[in-house]
Every structure is written in structure tokens, then in C-alpha cells.
Amino acid sequence: MIFIFKQIPILRKVVDERFVNHRLRSGCYGGMAGGLLACGLFEYRHWVNHVESWDLFAVAATIAGVGLALMIWYLITD
Questions:
Q1: How confident is the model at residue 6, as a pLDDT?
Q2: From CA 3, how far away is CA 12, in angstroms rounded?
Q3: Which residue ranges make up each domain of the chain?
Q4: CA–CA separation, 73 vs 78, rounded Å?
Q5: pTM exceeding 0.70
């Protein structure tokens, strides 16, 4: 991704490594917030309405699974 910015002259002046770092960190925090919200809504609907929303569970499990898979991938390839 950084290589694209270095090849386009006008973007090289506007975008630097800090921009890419902030973008990666914000995406990470956004994913964690989405996963926590999905888990929280699943638990709320389970305890208050006594209904299991498996779609929310699937979203939370997907976010957690992708996060763990990427952590393992980076650990192996680094």
C-alpha cells in the first residue's frame, strides 16, 4: 500500500507513513468496537428477550476469527 503512494508524485507530498499507520490503527479499533457491539447485542437479546440472535453471534465470531487468523499469519511470516 505504501508503494502506491510513493509512485504517485502528488500523493507522496500529502500521504506519509503516519497516515497509513493511523489508518491501520483506526481500522483495528473499528473492528474491535464492532465485535464488542455484536457480542453485547447478542448477550442483551439472550438475557433480556430470551432470544438467541445467531446472526449477531456469526458476525462477532467472524470478526474474532479473522483477527486471530491474521495474528497467527503475521506471527508465522514475520
A1: 57
A2: 10
A3: 2-77
A4: 8
A5: no
Average pLDDT, consecutive stretches of 10 residues, N- to C-terminus, the chain (78 residues): 58 68 78 90 93 90 88 83
How is 41-69 classified by DSSP, letter by letter? Answer: HHHHHHHHS----HHHHHHHHHHHHHHHH
Report the alpha-carbon distance of residue 21 to residue 24 in Å, rounded: 5
Cell numbers placing 36: 464488542
Contact in structure between 41 and 56 (CB atoms under 8 Å): yes
Q: Would you say 53 and 45 are in contact if contact means Cβ atoms under 8 Å apart?
A: yes
Cα–Cα distance measured from residue 68 to residue 59, given in angstroms and rounded to the nearest whole number: 14
